TrEMBL record:
<dbReference type="Pfam" id="PF00350">
    <property type="entry name" value="Dynamin_N"/>
</dbReference>
<feature type="region of interest" description="Disordered">
    <location>
        <begin position="485"/>
        <end position="511"/>
    </location>
</feature>
<keyword id="KW-0342">GTP-binding</keyword>
<keyword id="KW-0547">Nucleotide-binding</keyword>
<dbReference type="InterPro" id="IPR027094">
    <property type="entry name" value="Mitofusin_fam"/>
</dbReference>
<dbReference type="GO" id="GO:0051646">
    <property type="term" value="P:mitochondrion localization"/>
</dbReference>
<keyword id="KW-0472">Membrane</keyword>
<keyword id="KW-0496">Mitochondrion</keyword>
<keyword id="KW-0812">Transmembrane</keyword>
<feature type="compositionally biased region" description="Basic and acidic residues">
    <location>
        <begin position="499"/>
        <end position="511"/>
    </location>
</feature>
<dbReference type="GO" id="GO:0008053">
    <property type="term" value="P:mitochondrial fusion"/>
</dbReference>
<dbReference type="InterPro" id="IPR030381">
    <property type="entry name" value="G_DYNAMIN_dom"/>
</dbReference>
<keyword id="KW-0175">Coiled coil</keyword>
<feature type="region of interest" description="Disordered">
    <location>
        <begin position="1"/>
        <end position="98"/>
    </location>
</feature>
<keyword id="KW-0378">Hydrolase</keyword>
<dbReference type="InterPro" id="IPR027417">
    <property type="entry name" value="P-loop_NTPase"/>
</dbReference>
<feature type="domain" description="Dynamin-type G">
    <location>
        <begin position="266"/>
        <end position="535"/>
    </location>
</feature>
Length: 893
């Protein structure tokens, strides 16, 4: 198409947009084609007295010709210039458009840099969250404050309002004050408040984590819902790791959203999403905008997939439908990614959500560029008709996700149903980045009390989106889309649709819809700084505000944690040293107790057995001598009794050892309780289980043979005489010696005297009988002394044989070893308990040191995050999207 010309008509300052529309087309030259260059756009804007679709970035977001009531003094347009000549006004507009274009590019680049900075902050925060789980404000607000918050704003969102001018609601004086949101309009963000509101407002608390802080989060707010429990209660009931995990998910989602926003502001085209509740008339509204019945309409829900309406010039000038199958990524140059249908098949496609995810509808809008939204000559526009929000959860979730890639949201509300719960949730989500939402209240013609309906809906808008309500004259429209005449159905023969009969006969409804179209064009085209860049700024302010709040909380929490850890370390260090000292001293005391008990038992056993073995022959064994004929049996009985006595002595030594072991165990137990307390493992000690090995094990190794000489113990007799003599000698050495000498001389004299008397012959005859008598007397004496000599003889042999097998040492070692083994268990338990106590304190010390290092790093990190996020947020706030052009340019230099 070739560029056409239109006559220039003068305009007066303060002329409204409706009067400008009624007075004829706007002045200037307009280039129509498939796309535009900045130069062509500047030419179009200069001739339309606008600024390449950036009129919204001028003072108050409006320009003189097209926005009524702006209050800006502008000279009337001069008469039409002579062809081929240049006027100062045209040069001024051209320069102004270039300045605004430059300002737009600067703001876009500044926002791109801020987005990258915010992404870096969030990714760094995410990494820190893995090392040191971030704290989330979990102090619940009291009931009065909660009621006040609920009466003032929607729960969970608190933004910063930066829209221009003061706002005083006139429709509902009693309407509660709106929550503060992050907007992009120029001007003061102060909003007057009543004295009653000032009294109700809670004074700032000196502590950091206030009850209100949990409600101030917008983007990084943890959305938790469970029964009737409140948000703060649920967050407060979660563990620290769970909160950190949920926060990590929110950060990832925010990073993805920031990437989507950056891609969106870099895109020169604009996407307009038309959404709303089920049967709100979204498709009817889209058809009314297009002045053509393109999308199917029905009393029942008929749109199940996204329908994106585009200008047919983007499809090579061909009107058709591209249906994108599920799981495919649309690429117009790749026909394998979509299926081509005619416009007549659109009604079947939009209800087939089992095979298609979306469809691209390319149509030809025959209206002029100053009336058409698609064919506007400035930017490429995509009009997206979305499924109803409350149709089902899958479709509703898809609409929520799709709004992230949308520049402008047109929310269609049914005048009969107002805002449903799903509509409020969607607006809450969209308001995280879009402070301004274009509201269309459809179906007003069926409402009897229309004024009451308008007041009720505006009151809801005030609570849902205060920035939108503040400019409700531009952003909130009450229309009846079904009263707008339009062309026939796609592919029809041009005849009027029967359903269109009667349309176009109500000028007031058409005028209302015409005002809506003008406002929508102004919002999408002229105020592109607001519709294109403002959502990015709003979202950045919200996410940076959340990061700043979290950094503030975690910085102070890190300080508190560091102080706590330092105190814990100061208390833990002496306890650890005392534990190590106690381990050494108690271990030595336990070992010494075991060794002393073992040594005492060994010495006692050795002494007792040695004494028993040495005196067993002198003891009365209680066995009577039966006579010479049973002497051998008597000897065996004597031997067995001696062995029994020795074995009984061993048993007594074992009993003594059990007693000593019990005493040793009690001593070890007392040491364990003293140093370990309840940590001491109280194991039951059973002394009766000791010495299970038979006490006769060594005694059975003794084998004493009874010999004949065992019955005759001459040596013992001699020893007894010597003992008697020795006893006599003990009296006086002199007396004994003298007596022996005297006695010896007398005995010799008697023998010699007797021999003289008897004679030598008689003596010879008496020698043999005498010898026999002596022998008989000796044998009788020896046999009579068997009961006395046999025990001594057997005792000597037994002692000799026991000494050969080291019986005393073996038993003493066996009993003492058993004592050592019995006491080693409790002693080892005490030592292990002491070692575990030291290891536990050491591990606790290491963990505390690690916590101290982590808290130090966290304090440093969150301090830097606090400063960086605040600086970045201030930089974003300084990005003025609605600044007026410089005065020099406005004055024509």
């Amino acid at each position: 198409m070739k560029p056409g010309k239109q006559p220039i008509k003068p305009s007066t300052p303060g002329e409204s947009s409706s009067s400008a529309r009624d007075n004829g087309p706007p002045p200037g030259y307009m280039t129509v084609g498939s796309g535009s260059t900045p130069e062509a756009a500047a030419r179009l804007i200069s001739m339309l007295d606008q600024d390449s679709g950036y009129g919204g970035s001028m003072a108050n977001g409006e320009s003189g010709r097209w926005h009524g009531g702006i209050g800006e003094d502008r000279p009337s347009a001069p008469p039409a210039p002579i062809p081929g000549s240049s006027t100062p006004s045209a040069e001024q507009d051209r320069q102004r458009s270039h300045v605004l274009q430059l300002r737009y590019n600067q703001n876009k680049n500044a926002l791109s840099r801020a987005i990258h900075g915010a992404i870096d902050l969030l990714k760094g925060f995410q990494q820190e969250n893995l090392k040191w789980p971030a704290h989330y404000p979990t102090v619940p607000a009291d009931s009065k404050q909660n009621a006040h918050i609920r009466s003032q704003s929607r729960p969970g969102l608190a933004h910063t309002q930066s829209a221009m001018g003061e706002f005083q609601p006139s429709r509902s004086p009693e309407r509660p004050r709106a929550p503060r949101r992050a907007g992009t309009s120029l001007g003061s963000d102060f909003e007057p408040e009543s004295s009653a509101a000032a009294e109700r407002e809670q004074k700032p608390e000196p502590r950091l984590i206030t009850p209100q802080l949990a409600h101030d989060f917008s983007v990084l707010k943890l959305e938790l819902r469970m029964g009737g429990r409140g948000q703060a209660d649920l967050v407060h009931s979660l563990e620290k790791g769970s909160i950190a995990s949920l926060l990590d998910g929110q950060i990832q989602q925010s990073v993805r959203h920031l990437y989507a926003i950056k891609e969106r502001i870099e895109d020169t085209s604009s996407k307009v999403l038309v959404t709303g509740d089920l049967n709100a008339g979204k498709s009817t509204f889209c058809n009314a905008l297009l002045r053509r019945k393109v999308l199917p309409e029905d009393q029942q829900p008929c749109t199940s997939i996204f329908c994106e309406v585009l200008d047919f010039r983007e499809n090579g000038g061909v009107e058709e439908v591209h249906a994108v199958p599920l799981g495919s990524v649309y690429n117009r140059n790749d026909e394998s990614t979509y299926t081509v249908f005619s416009l007549n098949d659109l009604e079947k496609i939009v209800i087939d959500n089992e095979h298609f995810s979306q469809c691209k509808v390319y149509i030809h809008d025959i209206r002029s560029v100053d009336e058409s939204l698609l064919n506007n000559g400035v930017v490429d526009i995509a009009l997206i008709d979305a499924p109803g929000l409350n149709s089902d959860s899958v479709k509703t979730t898809a609409v929520f996700a799709r709004q992230e890639e949308i520049d402008v949201v047109v929310f269609v509300v049914s005048a009969a149903n107002h805002f449903t719960e799903s509509a409020k949730n969607f607006i809450f989500t969209a308001a995280r980045e879009k402070a301004y939402i274009f509201m269309v209240v459809n179906g007003l013609d069926v409402i009897r009390d229309q004024q009451r309906c308008k007041e009720m809906i505006l009151k809801q808008v005030h609570g849902l989106s205060p920035a939108t309500f503040k400019e409700s004259s531009e952003l909130v429209h009450f229309v009846s889309s079904n009263a707008i005449p339009m062309a026939g159905s796609p592919g029809g023969d041009g005849d009027d649709d029967p359903s269109d009969k009667g349309k176009g006969k109500d000028p007031e409804k058409e005028r209302d819809f015409g005002d809506l179209e003008v406002s929508l064009r102004r919002f999408v085209l002229e105020k592109r700084a607001r519709s294109k860049l403002a959502p990015a700024k709003t979202y950045l302010l919200n996410v940076l505000g959340d990061v700043h709040s979290l950094a503030t909380v975690n910085r102070d929490m890190a300080d508190q944690e560091l102080e706590r850890v330092k105190k814990e370390m100061d208390a833990l260090e002496p306890e650890f040293e005392e534990s190590k000292k106690s381990k050494i001293e108690t271990g030595e005391a336990v070992d010494r107790l075991v060794e002393d008990t073992t040594s005492d038992v060994y010495g006692h056993t050795r002494d007792t057995l040695n004494e028993c073995i040495s005196k067993v022959g002198e003891q009365d064994l209680g066995i009577e001598y039966p006579g010479l004929l049973s002497a051998y049996q008597y000897a065996e009985d004597i031997r067995d009794s001696m062995l029994h006595e020795i074995t009984e002595s061993v048993r007594l030594c074992e009993e003594h050892a059990r007693t000593q072991a019990a005493q040793g165990y009690n001593g070890i137990k007392n040491l364990g309780i003293l140093h370990l307390g309840n940590m001491h493992a109280d194991v039951m000690f059973r002394p009766e289980r000791m010495f299970r090995k038979s006490a006769h094990a060594l005694a059975r190794q003794v084998d004493i043979d009874i010999e004949l000489w065992d019955f005759f113990d001459v040596a013992s007799l001699w020893e007894r005489q010597e003992k008697v003599a020795g006893t006599g000698m003990a009296m006086t050495v002199a007396g004994v010696v003298g007596g022996r000498l005297v006695g010896g001389v007398g005995w010799v004299d008697g023998v010699l005297g007797a021999a003289k008397i008897v004679g030598s012959n008689n003596i010879r005859r008496l020698i043999i009988p005498g010898i026999i008598a002596g022998v008989a007397i000796g044998i009788s004496y020896v046999l009579s002394s068997v009961p006395k000599s046999l025990p001594h003889r057997l005792s000597a042999k037994l002692s000799q044989q026991l000494a050969a097998i080291d019986y005393t040492h073996s038993n003493a070692l066996r009993i003492s070893s058993e004592i050592r083994r019995a006491l080693k268990g409790p002693a080892k338990d005490v030592q292990i308990g002491l070692q575990r106590n030291v290891e536990k304190l050491q591990l606790k010390k290491e963990e505390t040191s690690k916590l101290k290092a982590e808290a130090t790093d966290a304090r440093k990190y969150f301090g830097n995050l606090f400063r960086t996020s605040n600086e970045l947020r201030q930089n974003v706030q300084r990005i003025d999207l609605e600044a007026a052009p410089p005065a020099a340019i406005s004055a024509g230099l």
